[in-house]
Amino acid sequence: MRTLLAILRYGQPAQTRLLVALAALFCFNLFNVFSLALIIPFLEILFAQAAPPEPYPSTLSLEAWKKYLFYQLYLFRLEVGPMTALVYFSAAIAVAILLKNAFRYLGAWHMTYYEHTLIQNLRNRLFAHLTALPLGFFVRMRKGRLLNLATQDVQIVQEAIIGTVYNLLNDPLTMLFYLGAMLVLSWKLTLVSLVVLPLTGWMISRLARSLRRKAHHGQRQMDVVLGILEEFLQGVRTVKAFSAEARERQRFLAANAAYTRFMIGLRRRMELASPLTEVLSVLVVLGLLYYGTFSVLEGQIKASEFITFIAIFGQFLSPMKTFNQAVSRLQKAVVSYRRIEGLLQQPPSEEYDRPGRVSVERLTEGIRVEGVGFRYGEKEVLRDVTLSIPVGARIALVGPSGSGKTTLVDLICGFYPPTSGTVLIDGRPLSEIDPVSYRRLLGIVPQDGTLFHATLLENITYGVEGPPDLARVWRVLELAQARAFVEELPEGLYTLVGERGQRFSGGQRQRLALARALYRDPQLLILDEATSALDSESEVRIHQALAELPRTYTLILIAHRLSMVRHADWIYVLDGGRLVEEGTHDDLLRRSGLYAHLYRLQVTA
Ligand SMILES: Nc1ncnc2c1ncn2[C@@H]1O[C@H](COP(=O)(O)OP(=O)(O)O)[C@@H](O)[C@H]1O
Ligand SMILES: [Mg+2]
Description:
The chain has helices spanning about 1-10, 15-35, 40-45, 60-80, 80-130, 135-140, 145-160, 165-185, 185-235, 235-240, 245-300, 305-345, 405-410, 435-440, 455-460, 470-480, 485-490, 505-520, 535-550, 585-590, 595-605, and strands spanning about 365-375, 380-390, 395-400, 420-425, 430, 440-445, 525-530, 555-560, 570-575, 580-585. By secondary structure, it is of the alpha/beta class. A hairpin with a 2-residue loop joins β4 (about 420-425) and β5.
């Protein structure tokens, strides 16, 4: 219930639609019952009984009013003749049914808008929340689970909501109207039927609930079957290599047999539901028929009223059933929504709303990393790293993979706070600096430079406000050795990049990512193995081009090929999260430490 309300809160912006729909559904139900009640005049014509004269209702009681109406009906029939009366009443029914359906459509029209808006808001909220989460969250969380949440679970909620809110509101309304009509016709008969109806309803819903639980169990058994299939598909090479096909078949047969056995039992129970309810409802109807006919014979109620009562009673079960289905559909959404809610409750990144942060316009002194340590959960990744990056310098970070280079750069960019120590920007702790202003100074080419699904031009000018400066775009493309291949594209800068940039090779993507970082005119340019997928020639040319740029920016270079870092002003060598050596290329070679070792390995290779 709490979850349901939480889900419905997403519909708030469309709440007026909900009210309009409700009003329309009210009218729909009114005309629905009215059209059913119009059977009475027909039956009256058919039976052509004389009504006892009742010129005015003597009392305000329902019985008196009913008698009065019947008398008017009788007069009307006498006046226009039964044939003409028939035409009138047929027309009345036709109009009532027309109106009823018009209102139903109107209700559904607005309800559909409400339901879809609700889902739209849920999706928007989820994505907005995702973008507000700190980077650390994404590093911890498995991507598959996130994707599953944002697509599958939202889909499940969507399927449970669309068409369901309609039933949730309309069915109780319909039942109320039917109940009202039945009460007006005969409260005694209503009482008789009400004794038995809830009993049937209760039995059906119990059966349904137990079936639902079983179905859940069935789903889990299906998971096992699918799991075997998936494992086989993934490991087909291994299965073949070990000639284990027969074993896999055996496993599959067993799981599938268990599933089938279970489903047969389930299906049999389901088949039991309709005979059971039918027997029960027949019993109710039998009781009604007996008591009703008895009342008619006793003269307590008119035959036409009795028949109409039966007609309405026959309709009563249907909204009850659809309402039950709607509730059970919603219950399916609950599990999924709870998962979504878990994500929404993740605290968003605090960095943007901590007050009193100063914004930085430019780097003047440089960056200092002081005694910085960092751990991912239990795992210590960086330990007591101290280093300086003066403005305008070309600094290289080297070390074996896994030594913590990317993590160090992440800390310098302020993507995570260090577990210990501080990162100082111009002598001021990074935690006191407005992150938006700081990141405007950075040009980062990450290891896995992503291109977005947009034109090349939009990709290169990404994150920079204002109209694109085309001359500048071509200049940075040239610097990044990307001009030639962009010029060869038939649509040039307006080429649409495919999903995740699949249209370009790894090397081309890296060059475009570099162009994007350069376009911002960064004060701190960070290349994290940004040229690793390039051929040596392009790589050398890029580094030459960068070296020839005026020294208006500071460079942090992480490169695998050490020949690329030899011209750096200063080289820091990381190993296992510690800073083990530093110096210029020549210093380090002379020292015959890790750097010299790595360098010799590469030169001789
Ligand atoms: N999300 C993560 N969770 C746990 N450990 C991680 C995560 N990301 C990186 N690491 C670990 O941190 C260490 C340093 O990684 P990284 O900074 O990427 O190294 P490098 O860039 O030098 O190859 C590695 O041992 C790696 O396994
Ligand atoms: Mg790395």
